[in-house]
Amino acid sequence: MNGKLTAEQRTQLKQWIGEESKGFRLLYRISRDGCAADVFHQKCNNQGPTVTVAYNTSGYIYGGYTSQSWTSSGTYVQDGKAFLFSLTNPQKYPVNITAKSVYCNTSYGPTFGGGHDLLFFTGTIQNVRNVFTLNTQSSFGNSYTSHGHSINNLTGGVYKVSELEVYALTDAVTDQWRKTPTWDDKLMTSLKGAVECYKPYEGLKLKTVNLLMIGPVGSGKSSFYNTISSIFRGRISSQAPAGSVEHSLTSQFRKYRVLVGDAGKPTSFRLCDTMGLEEGQGIDSVDVPFILDGNVPDMYRFNPASHVTPEIPDFNKCPQLKDKIHCVGFVLNSTKVEAMSEKLLLKIQSIRHHINQRAIPIVVLLTKVDQLCPMVFEDVDATFRSTAVKNMVDKTAELVGVPRSHVLPIKNYESEIELDVNVNILALLGLRQMLWFADDYLCNQADLLQKEEDS
Ligand SMILES: Nc1nc2c(ncn2[C@@H]2O[C@H](COP(=O)(O)OP(=O)(O)OP(=O)(O)O)[C@@H](O)[C@H]2O)c(=O)[nH]1
Ligand SMILES: [Mg+2]
Q1: Quick one: pLDDT at residue 173?
Q2: 185-454 homologous superfamily
Q3: What letter would DSSP give residue 276?
Q4: Which of 213, 224, 251, 412 has most ligand 1 atoms within 8 Å of its beta carbon, as the pocket-test mutant?
Q5: Which of 36-40, 106-110, 387-391 has the lowest mean pLDDT?
Q6: How many whole angstroms separate alpha carbon 57 and alpha carbon 161?
Q7: Is 80 exceeded by the pLDDT of residue 1?
Q8: Ligand 2 center to residue 274 CA distance, Å?
Q9: pLDDT in tens, 156-211
């Protein structure tokens, strides 16, 4: 859950707060959690600095910042850094009677100033067709500098709101176990742009690279393709059949293209989807060399009862570099990594051996992190702050035998009907890493070719 604040509004607030590296984590929103003082305190007490933002039905966006934690103590809290603000008519109103900066009371929602300068609601407010009629009045200018403005400059005189959100200000850099820039629309746009513009390593004149997805049944291989495809189409897309069945739902080898826009031009990579690995059936390690080497044609239908051989229809006898796999993503369900059977692990090790022999780079796409950690379920931008995810990344790296930086947490689209910036960012971070590694592989291939030419 990303909240309604736009990237520009976040930048404006960060500028007013005066600390560059802050990130925003949504704690409470009335449309989701209900407009009730006790719920506000349950969700927001003891969370450190917060921003409260109200969106009224006339389009006014306004609120307050405090650097102190909310509590249910029934007392005023001193905070020389607190301020009220309007984002519609951008203006910061700093506190001037600091002893009464914020008021913490279990029956009151977020409350700023003595008197009070800005009190949103008390008790519980009903949701009537997505509108909440606030039940309080403001004495704006009591404890905050009003710059000669009245409360109408913030609210337009309208006390019906469609949303009210409270965000915790997180130290976006030091909180994270894996460093990334601040997660916002800007990061999403730049990652998407980088992947869209990606061209394979120049020296070899390849038009596209092939990224293979391989892993146990139901781990999210097809869903990863659908997630990436959704990001570039700009809407939820479900081109690859995905779902939960006993055996692998995917039975075809597909080299999927990713289109930019619905009828747009394809990107310069293909995501290759495979049938799931199972203990006794599905893809076997003897099939894998043919896939890696580019012998298996697009749309080949796997036969669980027999393996790939040079006799299969359209077997590519003389594959070129463009047909081969340039980076492999082992797709593993983060909630099942620890429960993988000995037989499945052996299969994975044997597949790894074939990949290693060809010096193809390997990453692990560690899916379903939303099911691993409730914090990530709430908001995907918590992925790199989640200890549960970090521990699973460490365990998976050890189990599969790859560096931890090659384990890439993923949350695929599954129940959503709208795109989400943070889901996109996480998936694009994973995809960009695979493209970088594919280029490293191509660079090595170019060196090999050069060496052969020289001798
Ligand atoms: N919550 C959650 N569900 C996911 C995620 N990824 C996939 N799923 C769900 O997991 C189920 C299996 O996903 P698929 O993409 O079909 O898995 P697959 O690896 O292609 O499976 P096979 O083709 O059968 O081998 C589907 O119901 C998906 O919606 C994720 O990141 N989070
Ligand atoms: Mg599948």
Answers
A1: 44
A2: P-loop containing nucleotide triphosphate hydrolases (3.40.50.300)
A3: P
A4: 412
A5: 387-391
A6: 5
A7: no
A8: 7
A9: 999 999 999 999 987 654 458 898 998 889 999 999 999 999 999 988 889 999 99
Look-up: residue for tokens 């103590």?
73
Give the number of the atom of ligand 1 that is nearest the alpha carbon of residue 223: 15
Distance, CA of 69 to CA of 202 (rounded, Å):
53
250 or 172, greater pLDDT: 250
In contact, 239 and 413? CB cutoff 8 Å: no
Provide the CB-side half-sphere exposure for 27 (13 A, CA): 25
What is the number of the ligand closest to the CA of 242? 1
290: pLDDT strictly greater than 70: yes
**CATH 3.40.50.300 domain position(s) in the chain:** 185-454
What is the pTM assigned to this prediction? Answer: 0.69
Query: In this structure, what is the dihedral angle of CA atoms 155, 158, 164, 167, given to the nearest 10 degrees?
Result: 10
Q: One-letter amino acid identity for 228? A: I
> What does the pLDDT average to over 129-135?
96
Identity of the residue numbered 371: Q
Q: How far apart are CA 404 and CA 391, in angstroms?
A: 11
Q: Which atom of ligand 1 is nearest to the CA of 410?
A: 31
- Residue owning the nearest CA to atom 1 of ligand 1: 368
End-to-end CA separation in angstroms for the chain: 58
- CB within 8 Å of 43: residues ≥ 6 apart: 27, 28, 33, 166
Pocket of ligand 1 (CB under 6 A): 217-223, 242-244, 248-250, 276, 331, 367-368, 370-371, 410-412, 414
Query: 242 CA distance to ligand 1 centroid (A)?
Result: 6
Atom of ligand 1 lying closest to residue 276 CA: 25
Which ligand 1 atom is at minimum distance from the Cα of 213? Answer: 19
Q: What is the pLDDT of residues 2-53, one digit of tens each?
A: 679 887 898 899 999 986 656 788 899 999 999 999 999 999 998 889 999 9
**Is residue 333 predicted with pLDDT exceeding 50?**
yes
Q: Could you tell me which residues come within 8 angstroms of residue 203 by beta carbon, excluding any fewer than 6 positions away? A: 442, 443, 446
